[in-house]
Structure formats: C-alpha cells, structure tokens
Fold:
Amino acid sequence: MPSLVSRIVPGYLRLARANRAFISAENARKHVRERTLRPRPYGPPRRLRADVAISVSRDQGWPVYTVVPRTGRVQGNLIYAHGGGWVNEIAPQHWALAAEIAARAGTTVTVPIYPLVPFGTAEEVIAGMADLVLANRSRYGTVCLGGDSAGGQIALSTAVVLRDEQQVTVPRTILISPALDLSLSNPEMDAVQPSDPWLGKAGTRVFIELWRGKLPLSDPRVSPLAADMRGLGPLTVFYGTRDIGYPDGLLLAEKARAAGVEVDFHEGDGLVHVYPLTPAPEGRVARGVVVERLRAALAEP
Structure:
C-alpha cells in the first residue's frame, strides 16, 4: 500500500489542477502562448544543498549548468534532461534531484536548459544532447544519461542516436516516467487515465505536434519506443501505476529485455507520474536506487 504522503499526492494534484494544460487541446494552446509570452526562470534555487557547487556555461547555444560535490572523490558525469511536457521549464524538484545525485553519487551532474516548444524541436535538441555527451566524455570520462517525463524521452532518444550515429553505448540511462511512444496509441492508456491526476492525451498531443517538428511520430528521436533496442546500455526505469505512460513502460521493458538489454524496472503500485521526485518515502527509496545505479556505472573502468 502506498505511504500516507503518496496517498495524499493525487488529491493535492487534482486540487492544484496540475493537469489543466494536459486535459484539453484548448488549454494546451493557451499554455504554450503563456509560456511564450512570459518565460519562466530556469536558474537553480538560491537555497540548494550546501555540499554542492554550481556553475553555468553556454554549450550548443543553451545555458548548461554543472553541479559538482564540494568535497570527496568525483567520478564521471550524469547529463540530466528535466521534464515538463517539452513546454515547461525546469522546476525546483529537478534541481533538488540533480544536487542530491551529485552529492550522494560523487559525480558531476550536467543540467542543460534545452529550448522548449514552440522554439525547440526534437531534431535540434536530441542532436545537441548527443554533442553534449560526446564533449563530456572527453571532459569527464564515463557519461550516463537521465531524465524524467519529457526529459526521459530526450535521454532515451539521445542514447539511441549515440548508438546509431557514433557507435557509443551509454553505460546507464536513468528513466523516470519517460514519454516513450508519442503517438499515444496504446489502448491501455485509456484504462489508466481515470486514475492519473496529472497527465492527459488531448493537451499532450498539442505539445507533441510542436515538439516533433518535421519528424514523423515513428522517428526514434520522437518516440524512442519505436527504436531497435539492441546494443543499448542498461536501463533503470521508474513508473507509477497511476501514470498513463505506465503501459508503454511495460512495453519498453519487454522489448528491451527481448533485445538483450539489461532493464532495472521499478513499478510504484498506486503511485503517480514522476513519483521519484516527490517527498514521499517511495520517492526517497527511488532516489536511493538512482544513486546506487549511477555509482556502479560510473565506477566501471
């Protein structure tokens, strides 16, 4: 049974109308207009963990932040793509996760502030992310990828492009409730929808149409579930069962395992979208798993 905090979260999300931009196409279009006219700030909170240091540069023309532990041995690098439906900026919860990973895993965490819709597209962003991985491999050695929701799509699509175009295998990709098939065609989504307090298909389709640009929905840079999984590095995947993306997560695990890919799948029974970012006990446990998997991957020669 979910913890008390996790049982409260769905009610809070419904009360806050967290799904309002996702439940209708009209709301989604209004949301894009609002975010275009009044972009949200993206810098890290003033109060973050005291045991990490943050710097910023501009790579690929984007702001790229670096979070590094102040003390101890530092190994390798994680590039983390934040979620937000390709339309919302990075949130405090993402910054807290990046800082926690840097401090506890003893690694450098790179946080790119990639362009959002209607200005950014999958083709541009995935190419920029792949370039960033290659640059960081020269700088830090071993580089892992991670992301949540829309950022999970970006992370997995980038891993596919690196394999196909650069013959580079990412040693571990962390996927927190990733968007996987942007056709949203899995019929099981409709069965989960009534219990999902956050996401909806009608509004999400508006964001997807802007994000895919000229690419078809079947392109792995848009829908990584469409990719051949063979040759990908290990995947660590988290989904709550109250997430319309959960059925696609099950398909990812099945398809990847059939292709010989190691899949570390964590199912949060009764939990919501991106539950590892929540302050619930289940979120703390999931973040501990993320730290352990990254420590192991980054320690490998």
About this structure: The mean pLDDT is 96. The domain at 4-299 is CATH 3.40.50.1820 (Rossmann fold). The two ends are 40 Å apart (CA to CA). The chain is about 40% helix and 20% strand.
